[in-house]
Amino acid sequence: MNIVLGVGGGIAAYKSALLLRLFTEAGHAVTVIPTQASTKFVGVATWEALSGRPVSNDVFHAVDQVNHVRLGHEADLIVVAPATADLLARAAGGHADDLLTTTLLMARGPVLFAPAMHTEMWQHAATQANVAALRSRGVHVLDPAVGRLTGPDTGPGRLPEPELIFAAAMALIPAHAAGTAPASVALPTTTAAGGALSGKRVLITAGGTREPLDPVRFLGNKSSGKQGVALAEAALAAGADVTVIHAHMDVAAPAGAKLQSVETALELRAATLSAAGTFDVVIMAAAVADFRPASISSGKIKKRDDTADPVINLVRNPDILVEVVAHRAAQNLKQLIVGFAAETGDDQDDALSYAEAKLQRKGCDLLVVNEVGPGDSGTERVFGQDSNQVQILALDGATPVQASGSKRTVADTVVRVIAARLSAS
User: Boundaries of each Flavoprotein domain copy (predicted)?
Assistant: First the structure.
């Protein structure tokens, strides 16, 4: 996909270098158009090095290629970050006095502005009128985040984090192609402690289910519950009202969340389906056993020399994620559903291919995928570890978002993607 990244003249321009990296690592071709003022903060050499393409803000550069027309026509998406008060005003007024504003006038694909400025500038009637005018024309304008600004100031006007801008931008592509893109995209305002999910109710399943064989034995899995707890903590930090339905966990339950404990897949199914309809977001992070014993022995299964080894018959457990998706459809709920997939590859295909097929079968909005099994050092790659590496796949075909690091870092990225999706709906 061809993306034009416009960079306005604000101190937040340095964050756009991180946004550029997200676009290029996702496989997109990015042309950066900085305003003249923005090069006082980040130089042209930086943009050329990170994008691998020549960079200019001069309408008369490469005149033979008619850049002020070509770039807008060829762009599948234009993102402007940071968008200053002046740049919003010039875009709203239809100015064409540099390469960026002329490119905006020629745009045929979706355009996304990520504003950044001091609070008084953002709240000024002129800026609000300019934003309203742009949105009325189908331009997508994010609301700025709330937080520390240049100097001692704090308030609305902070550039949203690059991961949020990236997620919002990627969400526009399939919607625009289908003709269903909203007239505007507004990320929830955030405080220093979060706030992106303020007012939202989030249900999270966590831990590993245990299926009893007899009074002392069970079939289980290696899930520690660490990722589910990290997700709950991240959602709480973002201002959500969080409920966690958890099976066995090796870590303490998250403080501040409402908790419900279960043991088996059937118990998890009953609790989840009973509660799910009242939540804005359902995150299915529990490791649910695919099978359970067909029968449970009332007494401990004995190991005797004079008897044959026991044969344990298994039956399939219900697919809780599929049922939650079906419940949403049946009740016509406006709800975001996130699944998790711990996958392995084999001689037929790789883990990601299996995960993409699973996403289509399950029908959830997002699927967080990690590859499990022994790592290079022989230790487990995911289960029980403090770190994780995932790809967040989207049912609507949006570009996958990658996240790696501590399980809390991964959880923060998942929450940012969820917040961007909710704000775009």
Answer: 1-163
Closest to 399 measured CA to CA, from 391, 389, 407: 391
- pLDDT tens for residues 384-413? 466 788 989 999 988 888 888 888 888 988
Question: Do 158 and 218 lie in a common domain?
Answer: no
Q: Are residues 135 and 245 in the same domain?
A: no
Instruction: Give me the number of domains the chain comprises.
Output: 2
Angle between helices 320-331 and 351-362 (to 10 degrees): 30
- CATH code of the domain in which 210 resides: 3.40.50.10300
**Residue from 117, 127, 30 nearest 79 by CA:** 30
Residues 172 and 234 in one domain: no
Per-residue pLDDT at 143: 84
Q: Is 299 helix (H, G, I), strand (E, B) or coil?
A: coil
- Residues 134 and 140: their CA atoms lie apart, in Å, by 8
Containing domain of residue 101, as a range? 2-177
Helices (H), 183-318: 226-237, 265-275
Q: Is 318 known as a binding-site position?
A: yes
Confirm whether residue 300 is marked as ligand binding: yes
Q: Is 358 annotated as a binding residue?
A: yes
For residues 82 and 114, what is the distance between their CA atoms, to the nearest angstrom? Answer: 6
Kindly report whether the peptide bond that precedes residue 82 is cis, defined as omega within 30 degrees of 0.
Answer: yes
Strands ordered across the beta sheet of 2-7: 29-34, 2-7, 77-83, 111-115, 140-141
pTM as predicted: 0.58
Asked whether residue 223 carries a pLDDT value surpassing 60, the answer given is yes
**By C-alpha distance, which of 175, 110, 162 is closest to 395?**
175
Q: Is 290 among the annotated ligand-binding positions?
A: yes
The half-sphere exposure of 216 on its side-chain side, counting CA atoms within 13 A, is: 4
| Residues annotated as catalytic (active site), given as ranges | 221
**First-to-last C-alpha distance (Å) of the chain:** 23
Burial of 389 (0-12, 13-18, 19+ CB in 10 A): middle
Residue 325 is assigned to a structural domain of this protein: yes
Cβ-Cβ contacts under 8 Å for 286 (sequence gap 6 or more) = 205, 206, 207, 208, 209, 223, 228, 245, 246, 247, 268
Q: Report the interhelical angle of 85-92 vs 125-136 (nearest 10°).
A: 50
Do 118 and 245 belong to one domain? no
Q: pLDDT of 85-118, one tens digit each?
A: 999 999 999 999 899 999 999 988 899 999 999 8
